[in-house]
Design goal:
By secondary structure, this protein is an alpha/beta fold. Among the domains are: 188 residues, 3-Layer(aba) Sandwich (Rossmann fold), CATH 3.40.50.980; 98 residues, 2-Layer Sandwich (GMP Synthetase, Chain A, domain 3), CATH 3.30.300. The protein is built from 16 helices and 29 strands. The strands form 8 sheets. A 5-stranded mixed beta sheet has the order 2-1-13-12-14, sandwiched between helices. Strands 4-3-5-8-9 form a 5-stranded parallel beta sheet, sandwiched between helices. Strands 19, 20, 22, 23 and 24 form a 5-stranded antiparallel beta sheet that branches. Strand 6 and strand 7 form a beta hairpin. Helix 2 packs across helix 3 and helix 10 runs parallel beside helix 11. The longest helix is centred in the first third of the chain and has 17 residues. The termini are far apart.
Length: 525
Amino acid sequence: MNHAHTFGELITELKKRQSKDLCCVIEKEESHYGKILFEVEGLSSYLQSLGIQKGDRVAIWVPNRVEWVIALLATGQIGAILVPINCRFKASEAKYVLKHSESKVLITQSTFLTNQYEEMVMSWHSGGHDHFTSEELPNLKHLIWIGETKPKQAISWEEAVACNLGNHEVVCKPDDPVLIQYTSGTTSFPKGALLTHYGILRNAIDVGVRMHIKPKDKVFCAGPFFHIGGVTMQVILSLLYNVPFYSLSHFTPRKALDMVKKYKCTTYSGIDSLFLLVMELEEFQREDFASVRTGWTTGTLETVKLIREKMGIKDILLVFGLSEASPNVAICDISDPEEKKLASCGRAHPSCEIAIIDPLTNEFLPPGNKGEIVTKGYNVMSEYFKNEIETEKTFFQSWLRTGDLGSLDEDGFLYFHGRIKEIIRVGGENFSPEEVEGILYEHPLIEQVALLGIPNENYGEIPVAVIRQKAKASFELEELQTYLKGRIAGYKIPKKLVIVNEFPMTESGKIKKNQLKEQLFSIKI
């Protein structure tokens, strides 16, 4: 299908829609195209009146809400670059992103959950001025505040979007940057992936093609907008295909279930935990998701089977992607053979390529061999913003190195085998923890699990299962070993079991295995 190549072109397309057409529902607030486009024009005008030019950075630090979408469209229209800040970040993390990105404007609100944004932002203010100034953040000059209260150094959202000075037309090229996606690092401050207009827009179109998005679809956006998966594969996808999307300020299983039932959403997507948490609700019934026909997720073959059987989503699709690729690298098509949809992450999109290389020699490997997944194409980032060293390390020739272990079959379908750094090595045998975790997730007493390789004098490493049990469950190592015996090779069966009440998690919903390992090193095996 023909589609916009820049955000300016996207807005031109959106203006052809009826002003009363529904764009989205977030929490209980319905937003229609007429109001959204009015505020896009107002915010664009206001940003230009501040002197924001093509290439300047505008940061946004809020949870899922319609103002987030308006900010993305407005900054893209004038050639500026949006910098999403994780809404759960604390002061030092947010300050790092603002400083590194050299953002000139910050759009935020006073509070979210336990985060006191106003308190944190004003702690950076040098004081004594009616406008914001900061010695720590010398580039940050302007605050736009959402909500009923604001500091005197900020302008309200309502004032900003009411600006009617007109917009100076800015010509953007498809390969111009439009967003800096800071990756969710677990051991160091995040890197900023510089993503382009065309990379995000084309990726959304290609994902929609694979999901067979139709005019009557209703997209449920389970994940946060500050992650590129939520932006590209749900919000932008919905705008391009002219279908409404539905979301929550932050995900809770019960509210997600209620929204899907109330609005009869037809797609439900997100990382595997966003499915598992809904399924674990006592009140959940398979019929609750009767309207959902497809979606995408991460995880294993066992996760896909569970979603199909318990939620009834027959055409659930595994995906592979990363922030640096806008984000989707591979996804199945609904019309692909069942065996491919069950186990593989699909194929590369048109104009994109996937290959497998030996991570040590960089030799390209034939189908069936495991190695590092590399990719190239329109969706790959331009660079890590202001980080030449990491950019050079991440690219091999023109290929983006993912750090993930995978294989391709003869038909070009990709199979994900885990993070290279997480491979467990037991007495000369190597295996991915994902294989065992997927089987353990089928156990009725296990709510969450991580398999780790812990140093051992005799074998190099031995597998240890870290488990969060379901309520009132009692689980022993022998039961776990019996459950796995005969289903996997003996060296893959955990030799120790650790029960935890909660896992350390990244903001993208993944278990911080490095942190778990640090905690477990003190355990004598």
